[in-house]
Amino acid sequence: MDEFASIRKFVFQFVPYTEEEWKAHQGALTRRWLKKGEFLLTEGQTCNHVSFINKGYFRTYNMVFDEERTQFFAFENEYTTDYCSFVTRKPSRDNIIAMEDAEVLQLEYTAMQSLYEKYPVWQKFGRLIAEYVFVFTAYRSQDLLLRSPEELYRQLMQEKPFILERVPLKYVASFLGITPEALSRIRKRLSQKPDPVG
User: Fold this and answer.
1) How many Å apart are CA 145 and CA 55, to the nearest integer?
2) What per-residue string of b and e applies to 7-22 under the rule 16 or more CB within 10 Å gives b?
3) Using H for helix, E for strand and C for coil, what is the string for the chain?
């Protein structure tokens, strides 16, 4: 299978491109394999890549008072990175770890800047991705502030049930901002009285 097929399809959702423009982008990508438990990025490093996931999934977490706080999960056909560190060139606060054996296609910072200078289409793609990341992060922050853990769990059940099938429950609990015990109580309550998200 063409290892670039999925990323081509993903990018084309945002911008149409010529074959020349795509070949320039493809030529800047580096294929990388990671084992389960291997870090794509650790706190204190400057993030030098955006990584498109061909296989596996990743968990982004921060250390808060010696406790891991899960921020995001990224799966196949999605990008993962610390975009703030990538753009500002400052050390990251994130840890991004492979939760399964994984394969990614990475675009390095200086290679991206070169594409921006040569091809306006990649400038547009970069802007649209930045907007996508901003909106996603804003909604995530709002959900944590405005929704209860039970509402967030029900939302996961409805919108992204595959997360509950692939991710260990202790990390789902961390993502929801609760303890595994509290998540168990929510799951038990919902199994007794199903209540779809309104």
Assistant:
1) 32
2) beeebeebbebeeebb
3) CCCCHHHHHHHHCCCCCCHHHHHHHHHCEEEEEECCCCEEECCCCECCEEEEEEECCEEEEEEECCEEEEEEEECCCCEECCHHHHHHCCECCCEEEECCCEEEEEEEHHHHHHHHHHCHHHHHHHHHHHHHHHHHHHHHHHHHHHCCHHHHHHHHHHHCHHHHHHCCHHHHHHHHCCCHHHHHHHHHHHHHCCCCCC
* Pair of tokens at residue 5: 């097929």
Per-10-residue mean pLDDT of the chain, 198 residues long, equals 90 94 96 98 96 96 92 93 93 96 97 95 92 84 84 90 93 93 92 61
For 69-87, b where at least 16 C-beta lie within 10 A, e where not — what string?
ebbbbbbeeebbbbbebbe
In whole angstroms, give the CA distance from residue 81 to residue 52: 9
Q: Enter the tokens of residue 29.
A: 């990508």
Give the predicted TM-score (pTM) of the model: 0.90
φ and ψ at residue 84, rounded to 5 degrees: -65, -45
